[in-house]
Design brief:
The chain has 847 residues and is of the alpha+beta class. Helix 9 runs parallel beside helix 10 and helix 14 (796-802) packs antiparallel against helix 15.
Length: 847
């Protein structure tokens, strides 16, 4: 017997290595419980009564975790838990956690070593986000009104990651969910307990976010249409005006997916409505069902604005039903107060008022909570946080489509209820300059779907007009945002329709919106990655380059998915040229997409851009999935273009699903593809599609487009000689593949001449500006007859299409003549003022 007891004792004090099974409790006694969630996250609970919390909290939404390897030492007076990232030590039977009985140290040889005890102050927090940008002009708050002045600067909430390599999340006083069918808020019974989550990650910030999703839930994938263009304006549109607006978008061939209808959809005058309202304004919308039907017939998704704080007033059409639901006598016409924590009220609100409108055609709701911050009964309950949960979970339970919400940030855990709108900012360069940082920093709390009022919400002064250059730069930034939405206040001067900006500006804006749609497959794939990993579409540079100081110094730059980097232009141009310092991280070269320039990584460089160009950098060799021209994101069978960028090799995997199904977690498909350049031969391989989903097309047209391409000597598709299209003005080669089953692999082999000139030195933008400037010059001198050498420069693109055998010679002539452009202009005998204008117009600089 003694021998047996000794063996048991030895077993208890020995190091125990095991693959933990659910619920991952590594150690528990009467008052403490330690749960290993991942190798970088441990939950630490202290309960004076031994009543540990198993219910889900507003932070901890998940209770099942994957297997994780850890080591437990339970010997004598202390318990020690070790993972690959940290070691936690607690002195047993010493009560609540303090700096005397609990400590955590980083793993040996950790890149970012740390020692933590309760009370240790975190350093280098990289911040998260804020509830709203209402009343902000840049990072400064000035409220509303032309006479307003700055009163404070933005203070972002702390984020989940810090340069010190660890984060402590205190969930001790957070609210909980009950276990009812529609899980409802409940307060903790024990007030003196401790419920902490410790995260260890070093500088692996991406892994920290993934670890967070393990216990706090994933970022839901929005419907595909959410990544299209949204039109919004605070304006008392009528049914007829909105129909005309939709027709004008079609007339100018501008894609559109979401139509936002601000608060004037309901009555606003006293006695019929107000800030809160639920009854359609029949003066503007005589037949709401037919209006919604028109939008549906035009493939548009609809969201209506709600300000729910004033409850349900007796003049609302649905008041009698709601009063009866609440056990009130409708005849007494007593207002029904908004009661967020009252489950009966919220169920009745959904059932009697909102759900019938959803059945008529409203796809999702734009919640605009601006009133009292917390619930009147459960005073720690944030109305913003709770409304986000209620609306999103209501759609999860009762809608046949994928849930989506459009509201404000409510705090940690709200990443589970996308999408956010940032609020009413001033239409200034300062506001544009602040939004890139605000945008990507929000990914530090997984709030990766901010939507901004592109162009600003309100003008700075009573005499101001919409700054068209500012609006274009904001739209260009918007195309590389999570959500692309124009919006403004009720101001006659804020006319943001593309066709109201002048013909040339409209062309730029239309190209910007079309670019957004072409990027949709890449964006949607990256959104799926955000669901899987917790790493958002727009993310700070320090996720990928944590040790580079430039990651923190160039605050406006951000990664747009894994393959693209954006350096927004946020200041006005000088003489038509925007000059920007750009940091190009080491590790790979970067292709400046819109100028056609391949740049070496590991440098800070100054770059110039015309108004129709934007600093978009693609990793050299990348191959990305794009759409051809599309008018909406509703269809599943659009042509896919595999676009190959200059470089040696690249790989990607296209994600696709039904687009609006709730089954996306398991019903989806992927298509892997690669490109490789060896000598003068480029090979693109497209694997057979894997997986399935509802309404999946069996066949699809694939195209391979090569950027900065010369004219090939041969093109083969699946071993057979194939035709191709070459665009001399854009220097692109496009090969259309045969339409076969998507399950079949395909291969494209493109062979180029041995002596192809370098086409990645900015030739693309030089060709473009020369063509435009030579055309514009004719309006300064209608009788101009360009001299030899100069005259050919305006039509190089067409010439190399017409005479492919002269490709190299004509490109070299263009380069030579561009270098001696001032001499050619002298030969042209231009006036001094015209010569200066010409050189400035093409942004010519002496080498």
């Amino acid at each position: 017997m003694k021998k047996t007891l000794s063996l048991v004792a030895a077993f208890l004090v020995a190091t125990i290595t095991a693959w933990a099974q659910q619920p991952h409790v590594a150690y528990q006694d009467q008052h403490v419980r330690f749960t290993v969630i991942t190798d970088g996250v441990v939950r630490m609970e202290y309960s004076p009564t031994g009543s540990f919390v198993d219910d889900r909290s507003f932070l901890r939404s998940e209770t099942q975790y994957p297997d994780v390897k850890y080591t437990l030492k339970n010997a004598g007076s202390q318990v020690q838990i070790t993972t690959s990232k940290m070691t936690m030590t607690y002195k047993k039977n010493t009560g609540a956690f303090t700096d005397k009985n609990l400590s955590i140290v980083s793993a040996k040889k950790a890149q970012v070593p740390f020692t933590w005890k309760p009370g240790t102050k975190q350093t280098g927090n990289l911040k998260g986000t804020s509830r709203t940008l209402d009343g902000f002009d840049g990072a400064g708050h000035r409220g509303w009104g032309y006479e307003s002045t700055f009163d404070y600067q933005m203070e972002l909430e702390d984020g989940l990651i810090a340069t010190c390599g660890w984060t402590l999340l205190d969930d001790s006083n957070n609210l909980l969910f009950d276990n009812s069918d529609w899980a409802w808020v409940q307060e903790r019974k024990e007030k003196d307990g401790q419920d902490w989550f410790f995260m260890a990650y070093g500088h692996d910030y991406k892994q920290a976010l993934t670890d967070f999703t393990t216990f706090a839930g994933k970022i839901p994938l929005p419907p595909r249409y959410a990544f299209g263009y949204w039109w919004s304006r605070y304006w008392s549109y009528s049914d007829a005006e909105m129909r005309d607006l939709v027709k004008t978008f079609k007339k100018y061939d501008i894609p559109l997916d979401v139509f936002v209808v601000d608060m004037d959809w309901h009555y606003v005058e006293e006695g019929k409505g107000g800030w809160t309202g639920y009854t359609w304004n029949r003066k503007l919308f005589p037949d709401p069902a037919k209006f919604l039907g028109f939008l549906k017939d035009n493939n548009l998704q609809i969201t209506l604005n709600l300000h729910p704080a004033d409850g349900i007033k007796p003049y609302e059409e649905k008041y009698p039903q709601m009063a009866k639901w609440m056990g009130m006598d409708p005849a007494k016409k007593e207002p029904i107060k908004f009661q967020g924590s009252n489950k009966r009220y919220m169920e009745g609100w959904m059932e009697n008022i909102l759900r019938p409108m959803e059945k008529e055609g409203v796809n999702f709701w734009w919640l605009d909570w601006q009133q009292f911050p917390n619930d009147s009964v459960i005073t720690s309950l944030s109305n913003t946080w709770w409304l986000n949960y209620c609306f999103f979970s209501e759609q999860e339970r009762n809608s046949q489509f994928r849930p989506m919400l459009y509201h404000r940030w409510g705090g940690l855990g709200n990443h589970r209820y996308q999408i956010g709108f940032s609020g009413d900012t001033y239409s200034t360069w300062a506001s544009l300059d602040y939004q890139p940082y605000f945008n990507h920093t929000a990914s530090n709390v997984l709030y990766g779907y901010w939507s901004h009022d592109i162009g600003g919400h309100m003008l700075e002064t009573p005499t101001a007009l919409l700054n068209k250059e500012l609006y274009i730069r904001w739209m260009q930034f918007g195309a590389f945002n999570p959500i692309m939405r124009s919006h403004s206040t009720k101001s006659a001067e804020l006319k943001k329709e593309p066709w109201n900006q002048g013909a040339e500006n409209m062309e730029i804006l239309r190209d910007v919106i079309n670019t957004r749609y072409q990027l949709a497959p890449y964006i949607y794939t990256t959104a799926r990655q955000a669901y899987e990993t917790g790493v958002s579409l727009c993310r700070p540079m320090y996720y990928d380059y944590p040790e580079a100081p430039e990651s923190f110094e160039f605050k406006n730059q951000y990664m747009f998915g894994d393959e693209m980097m954006i350096a927004p232009i946020t200041a006005p141009a000088v003489d038509g040229i925007s000059t920007l310092k750009v940091w190009l991280p080491a590790g790979n070269d970067w292709y400046e997409w819109q100028t056609g320039t391949l740049l070496e990584g590991g440098q800070i460089i100054e770059r110039d851009f015309t108004l129709d160009e934007y600093p978009v950098y693609v990793k050299a060799g990348a191959i990305l999935p794009l759409y051809d021209k599309v008018s909406s994101l509703r269809n599943n069978d659009e042509d896919i273009v595999f676009q190959v960028f200059p470089g040696q090799q690249g790989a990607f995997s296209l994600y696709e699903d039904q687009g609006n199904s709730k089954d996306y977690k398991t019903q989806y498909a992927t298509t892997a593809f690669t490109s490789k350049k060896e000598g003068s031969v480029l090979t693109v391989k497209i694997a057979g599609r894997q997986g399935s989903y509802a309404e999946m097309p069996a066949q699809r047209t694939y195209k391979v487009k090569v950027v900065a391409s010369a004219i090939p000597t041969a093109v083969k598709v699946n071993g057979q000689t194939a035709a191709y299209e070459f665009d001399g003005e854009k220097l692109t080669l496009t090969v259309t593949l045969p339409k076969v089953t998507c399950a079949q692999a395909q291969e494209v082999v493109i062979t180029y001449p041995e002596n192809v000139p370098d086409l990645t030195d900015g030739l693309l933008t030089k060709m473009k500006v020369m063509k435009k400037t030579m055309t514009d010059m004719k309006y300064r001198d209608a009788g101009i007859d360009y001299v030899d050498g100069l005259g050919e420069m305006g039509s190089l693109g067409q010439a190399i299409e017409y005479f492919p055998g002269e490709f190299n010679a004509r490109v070299q002539d263009f380069r030579d003549n561009y270098l001696k452009l001032p001499a050619l202009l002298d030969k042209q005998k231009l006036k001094i003022v015209d010569k200066e204008w010409f050189l400035k117009s093409v942004n010519w600089k002496e080498k």
